[in-house]
């Protein structure tokens, strides 16, 4: 993070996010001649218990805008589920595809979010920042009374749900960011973002061969490192699920359906990396993880929206999803998924993934 400007957004030098490239070029994601650089100048306003940025923690006041297609948004969906914040923070789900004018609420009756009353997420951004020129990204938290976006800083948003919203956590909520492990979680998360979470995009949106090959090798070197780390321990940091596991899961769950082919991350499929494949199945079968994943939305987003990579917009039918429910054997490594807490209850009926889009019963 490069500091915060007066408008509540993070400053920094020139960079491009996927959404900004789309807005500026009218539908292109790949900039020829170099590597993809993600713009990390987010709206860094925070919602905190002491309201130090002017936005207090308050049940019912905010709406989390997501798309199930997006890995960054998927993190917030999982954290919200595990912590039991469904009643405190409502959720607006955008459709899996969008045009250069931003995410739309086309899944809702009349094409409008029923709480915010808007057709496009851009309307919430412009309500606070008229003429906003950066990426209209999910996840974002919107203030319902004013209709204004508060933040789209997905990394901090996730941590704040764990640390600032404790008054509204469900009984038995796990500690996803335990204080004694925060330095290690932060260290691992930094490596994950650089080489894996953003690494797959650096492969897929590379503008020349050299940039692609550099990103490809960094990605698979890090995946090999993760496989070695996880061969002897069930979770990335400590013996329970933490923020680090959530951040890795949302990339791995998309690997074979999208990144292996569409983003040319094709040294190995996830199913050909035994430790990581068992690890991600373990998490997928854990309440709060797999029940947030919509494979149809994931594939439609990447293959339909990225037309400069996939000009026809044809969405592949595979891979077969039934193997996500096969035994993983990770229990033999010990560990307690929720620590001293308990699994979350099933998702509310209105938030359940379409049964046709998941292998879960």
Uncertain runs are 1-26
The top-level CATH class of the largest domain is Mainly Alpha
Report the CATH topology name of the largest domain. Answer: Glutathione S-transferase Yfyf (Class Pi), Chain A, domain 2
Total DSSP E strands = 6
Which architecture of the largest domain does the CATH hierarchy give at level 2? Up-down Bundle
| Number of domains as seen in the coordinates | 2
Mean pLDDT comes to 92
3D shape: globular
Radius of gyration: 19 Å
Percentage of residues in helical conformation: 25-40%
Helical run tally:
11
Structural class: alpha+beta
Query: Would you list the SSEs in sequence order as H and E?
Result: HEHEEEHEEHHHHHHHH
Oligomer type:
single chain
Strand order of the largest sheet: 2-1-5-6
| Percent of residues in β-strands | 5-15%
Straight-line N-to-C gap: 41 Å
Q: Sketch the major β-sheet.
A: 4 strands, mixed
Q: How would you sum up this structure, described in words?
A:
The protein is α+β, with helices and mostly antiparallel strands and 361 residues long. It folds into 2 domains: 62-168, Glutaredoxin (3-Layer(aba) Sandwich); 179-351, Glutathione S-transferase Yfyf (Class Pi), Chain A, domain 2 (Up-down Bundle). It is built from 11 helices and 6 strands. The chain has helices spanning 18-25, 71-83, 122-128, 154-163, 182-197, 199-204, 209-230, 243-252, 255-259, 274-284, 295-305; strands spanning 62-67, 90-94, 98-99, 102-103, 140-143, 148-151. The strands form 2 sheets. Strands 2-1-5-6 form a 4-stranded mixed sheet. The protein is globular, with a radius of gyration of 19 Å. Residues 1-26 have low confidence and may be disordered.
């Amino acid at each position: 993070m490069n500091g915060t400007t007066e408008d509540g957004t993070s400053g920094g030098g020139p960079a491009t996010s996927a959404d900004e490239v789309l807005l500026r070029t009218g539908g292109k994601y790949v900039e020829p001649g170099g590597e993809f650089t993600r713009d990390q100048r987010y709206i860094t306003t925070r919602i905190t218990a002491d309201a130090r940025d002017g936005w207090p923690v308050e049940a019912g006041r905010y709406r989390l805008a997501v798309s199930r297609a997006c890995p960054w948004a998927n993190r917030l969906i999982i954290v919200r589920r595990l912590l039991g914040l469904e009643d405190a923070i409502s959720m607006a789900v955008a459709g899996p595809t969008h045009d250069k004018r931003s995410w739309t609420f086309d899944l809702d009756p009349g094409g409008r979010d029923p709480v915010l009353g808007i057709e496009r997420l851009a309307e919430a951004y412009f309500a606070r920042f008229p003429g906003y020129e950066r990426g209209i990204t999910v996840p974002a938290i919107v203030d319902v009374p004013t209709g204004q976006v508060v933040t789209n800083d997905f990394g901090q948003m996730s941590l704040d749900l764990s640390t600032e919203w404790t008054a509204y956590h469900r009984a038995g909520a796990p500690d996803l960011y335990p204080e004694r492990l925060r330095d290690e979680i932060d260290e691992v998360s930094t490596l994950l973002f650089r080489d894996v979470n953003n690494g797959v995009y650096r492969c897929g949106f590379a503008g020349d061969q050299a940039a692609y090959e550099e990103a490809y090798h960094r990605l698979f070197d890090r995946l090999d490192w993760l496989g070695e780390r996880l061969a002897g321990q069930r979770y990335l940091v400590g013996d329970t699920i933490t923020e680090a596991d959530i951040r890795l899961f949302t990339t791995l769950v998309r690997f074979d359906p999208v990144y292996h082919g569409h983003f040319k991350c094709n040294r190995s499929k996830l199913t050909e990396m035994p430790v990581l494949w068992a690890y991600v199945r373990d998490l997928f079968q854990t309440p709060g993880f797999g029940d947030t994943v919509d494979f149809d939305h994931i594939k439609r987003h990447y293959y339909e929206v990225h037309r400069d990579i996939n000009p026809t917009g044809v969405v592949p039918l595979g891979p077969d999803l039934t193997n996500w429910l096969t035994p993983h054997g990770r229990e033999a490594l010990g560990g307690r998924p929720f620590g001293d807490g308990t699994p979350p209850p099933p998702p509310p009926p209105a938030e359940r993934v379409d049964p046709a889009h998941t292998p879960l019963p």
